[in-house]
Design brief:
The chain is of the alpha+beta class. It has a domain at about 175-385: outer membrane lipoprotein receptor (LolB), chain A. Helix content is about 20%, strand content about 35%. It has helices at about 5-40, 105-135, 285-295, and strands at about 175-185, 190-200, 205-215, 220-235, 235-245, 250-255, 260-265, 270-275, 280, 305-310, 310-330, 330-340, 350-355, 360-370, 375-385. It has a 15-stranded mixed β-sheet with strand order 8-7-6-5-4-3-2-1-15-14-13-12-11-10-9, covered by helices on one side.
Length: about 400
């Protein structure tokens, strides 16, 4: 084989290899472009939002002593009416004195002195009654006939204690909540409806409300409307006033008189001592959420709080039932379930609250089980953060 023929074959082999490499490169580039086009092709479906569910370890339960009983304050005594002065007894008839001798001056002045003494004693009793009405303490016992106070006075009951267990509280940010309502009457009749709940705070003051109703053909009937307003202090929510309006009932108001240290009601003349951390029915779920948000270990023992509603201010005891995953229109939500079982002599209904640790410890579901067996469940379907809650 000549040298020229050998060189030609070598050149031909090199060209063939180069062409093969070029074809491979073109093929790889074409396939890569097709895959990239498929990857970045816009989808006609809306993008899904992936949310992380916060799961916290449940604290170990610690036995809690029985909740304290809070008795109503004794009614303020009304001022005692002034007793009518009795006329002094007339002296026995005596023989008429001689005409020239005037009657003794002491005979005419005796009745006047007795009436004056009686009026003075009545004024003292009235003043003591007024003092009792203002201070809530009974007046000192009246002096005996000799003018001395008895040595053994009746003991006065001490006022109920003002202290309660203190909790660390970190209240959730402001938000509004759309809720689905499902009610089952005691006879099994089922109803559906909607509710709206709001929570707004600027860090110093707050307002909260809940309006729940059921749908009836072409109309809507409110089952419950509650509103509350007040301040924020070192122990969380500090209501000043709260109102409740239930179906077919008049609206009632509860007043938290912090200067006087009492809780009073528009529907009752009762009053209760104002305990630390006292709440009304509107603020209970948000106060519980603030307790969990501050320190979950506080739920290791039962949560006691005084709650004023309608005509009474009882101690509510909430117990941590456990972690539960709820099905909502927002998807599955991990919650902590707290329950206040019925308490004979104080309240006959059961109240359940589900808080979401992954959603600022907001209340996601509320359920009230009445003594008759009627059940009302409110489940959050949408949460809207308000401006102060961003």
């Amino acid at each position: 084989m000549s040298l020229s023929t050998h060189l030609f074959q070598r050149r031909r082999l090199l060209l063939l290899c180069a062409a093969t490499l070029a074809l491979h490169y073109v093929a790889i580039d074409w396939v890569g472009g097709r895959l990239a086009a498929q990857t970045h092709r816009p989808s006609p479906l809306p993008p899904s939002l992936m949310t992380a569910q916060l799961r916290l370890a449940l604290p170990k339960h610690v036995d809690t002593p029985p909740a304290a009983e809070v008795q109503p304050l004794p009614p303020a005594a009304q001022p005692a009416p002034k007793p009518r002065s009795k006329p002094a007894p007339q002296p026995a008839a005596e023989p008429a004195p001689p005409a020239a001798e005037p009657p003794a001056a002491t005979d005419s002045s005796a009745p006047t002195a007795s009436a004056s003494d009686a009026a003075t004693a009545a004024d003292a009793n009235a003043g003591a009654g007024a003092a009792q009405a203002q201070t809530g303490t009974p007046p000192p016992p009246p002096p005996n006939a000799a003018g001395a106070t008895p040595a053994a006075a009746v003991p006065v009951d001490a006022a109920p204690p003002q202290g309660m267990r203190r909790y660390k509280v970190n209240l959730p940010p402001s938000a509004s909540f759309d809720m689905d309502v499902a009610r089952v009457d005691a006879d099994g009749t089922k109803w559906t409806g909607a509710a709206a709940m709001t929570w707004h705070t600027d860090g110093s003051n707050y307002t909260a409300s809940l309006e729940a109703g059921i749908s009836l053909l072409v109309t809507r009937v409110n089952l419950l409307v509650m509103r509350s307003s007040g301040t924020i202090d070192d122990f969380g929510i500090a209501p000043v006033s709260g109102t409740q309006k239930r179906a077919r009932r008049a609206e009632t108001a509860t007043h938290f008189n912090r200067d006087a240290g009492t809780i009073t009601f528009s529907a009752s003349e009762r009053s209760y001592p104002l305990m630390v951390g006292a709440q009304d029915m509107t603020t209970v779920p948000f106060q519980l959420g603030g307790i969990g948000r501050a320190d979950v270990n506080q739920f290791s023992s039962d949560i006691d709080m005084q709650v004023g509603e309608d005509k009474e201010a009882n101690i509510f005891r909430f117990q941590l039932v456990g972690e539960e995953e709820l099905e909502t229109r927002m998807g599955k939500v991990v919650t902590w379930h707290l329950s206040r079982p019925p308490r004979p002599g104080s309240y006959s209904s059961r109240l359940d609250v589900w808080l979401a640790p992954g959603l600022n410890w907001y209340p996601i579901q509320l359920r009230n089980t009445e003594a008759s067996g009627a059940l009302t469940t409110q489940t959050v379907s949408k949460i809207t953060m308000t401006e102060s809650g961003k």
